[in-house]
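Protein: Dirigent protein
Species: Vitis vinifera
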Amino acid sequence: MDLSVGRYNGSSFSVVGRNPVMNEVREMPIVGGTGIFRLASGYCLAHTYSMNEMDAVIGYNATLIHY
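Structure follows.
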C-alpha cells in the first residue's frame, strides 16, 4: 500500500500472502514498509464487497505497528 497524503506521504507498507478473492474475508500479514512504516508489522483484512466476471470491489482494513 502506497500512501500519498498527510504525514504518511511517500510511505508504504507491504502486504503478502494468499488472497483468494472468492472468500468473503481474507487475513494477510504486513511484513515491513518504507518511510514512517519502516520495520512495520501487523495484519490486513481484505473484504470482498462485490464481484463479477471483470471487476471486484475490495476493501482493506490494516492494523499495523511501526516504530
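Remarks: The chain is about 0% helix and 50% strand.
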